[in-house]
């Protein structure tokens, strides 16, 4: 489902990613962990098409987004760590912006699709700036899934959220995977790692697959 080979990225002379290669199967829930500043967010931005690859190859379901940039839109939803919503607009208007390019109906999804699972209907008239962090995350996920992509990529999905919101996010990820989706997240949350069937550690610019049950001090040692 996701194939990455030889991904390289640098900020000037500072090499952040060197020869990152991995494969994620359909239906996997894969986590990327690593020390702060190791390049996890940069890697996800490249995978989502938010940043341009300097070197390397990337394919989703065998499709090359360098040949057709619409592959990103069709194949994946991306939720960055920072809030991507337009704060001055309502939840309804933010969703409309994303659904304007989608073949699917926002109204139908509010009734019986992902937006109903996220319980967004009650929030539609609210201005985004007035929402809590957890509510904004739910709306962000709804926007990312407007085109019903098979892959969902999230950067630290429950960072700075309270325990109830964290549990809600885990529930949405489980629902997406049960529905046949593939999930790729960056996280340090052990409860989120427990959802994952695959674990990758980003260390010194390279990606290493580890036992998905790695926890505690053993997990920390894998960062070094």
How would you describe this structure in keywords?
single chain; 224 residues; alpha/beta; Rossmann fold; 9 strands; 25% strand
In short:
This protein has 224 residues and is of the alpha/beta class. The protein is built from 9 helices and 9 strands.
Overall body shape: globular
For the biggest sheet, the summary is:
6 strands, mixed
Structural class of the secondary structure composition?
alpha/beta
Helix content: 25-40%
C-alpha Rg, in Å? 17 Å
Give the percentage of residues in beta strands.
25-35%
Strand order of the largest sheet: 5-6-7-3-8-9
Q: How many separate structural domains?
A: 1
* Helix-strand sequence: EEEHEHEHHHHEHEHEEH
Low-pLDDT segments, ≥5 res? none
End-to-end separation in angstroms reads 29 Å
Query: CATH superfamily name?
Result: P-loop containing nucleotide triphosphate hydrolases
The pLDDT mean sits at 93
CATH architecture: 3-Layer(aba) Sandwich
Structural commentary:
With 224 residues, this protein is of the alpha/beta class. The protein has a single domain, classed as P-loop containing nucleotide triphosphate hydrolases (Rossmann fold). 33% of the residues lie in helices and 25% in strands. The chain has 9 helices and 9 strands. The protein has helices at residues 40-48, 70-75, 91-99, 106-112, 114-117, 133-144, 163-178, 190-193, 216-222, and strands at 2-11, 14-24, 29-33, 55-60, 76-79, 151-155, 182-186, 198-203, 206-210. The strands form 2 sheets. Strands 5-6-7-3-8-9 form a 6-stranded mixed β-sheet, sandwiched between helices. Helix 3 (91-99) runs parallel beside helix 6. The radius of gyration is 17 Å and the shape is globular.
């Amino acid at each position: 489902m996701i194939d990455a080979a030889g991904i390289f990225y640098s900020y000037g002379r500072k090499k952040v990613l060197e020869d990152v290669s991995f494969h994620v199967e359909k239906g996997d829930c894969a986590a990327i962990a690593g020390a702060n500043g190791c390049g996890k967010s940069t890697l996800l931005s490249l995978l989502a098409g938010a940043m341009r690859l300097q070197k390397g190859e990337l394919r989703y379901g065998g499709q090359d987004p360098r040949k057709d940039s619409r592959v990103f839109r069709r194949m994946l939803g991306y939720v960055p760590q920072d809030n991507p919503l337009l704060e001055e607009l309502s939840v309804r208007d933010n969703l409309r912006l994303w659904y304007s390019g989608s073949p699917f109906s926002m109204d139908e999804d509010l009734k019986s699709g992902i937006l109903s699972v996220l319980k967004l209907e009650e929030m539609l008239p609210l201005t985004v700036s007035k929402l809590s962090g957890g509510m904004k995350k739910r709306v962000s996920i709804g926007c990312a899934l407007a085109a019903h992509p098979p892959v969902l990529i999230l950067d630290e999905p429950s960072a700075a959220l309270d325990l109830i919101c964290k549990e809600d996010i885990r529930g949405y990820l489980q629902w997406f995977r049960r529905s046949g989706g593939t999930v790729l997240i960056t996280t340090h949350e052990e409860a989120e790692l427990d959802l994952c069937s695959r674990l990758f550690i980003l260390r010194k610019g390279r990606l290493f697959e580890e036992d998905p049950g790695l926890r505690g001090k053993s997990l920390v040692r894998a960062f070094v």
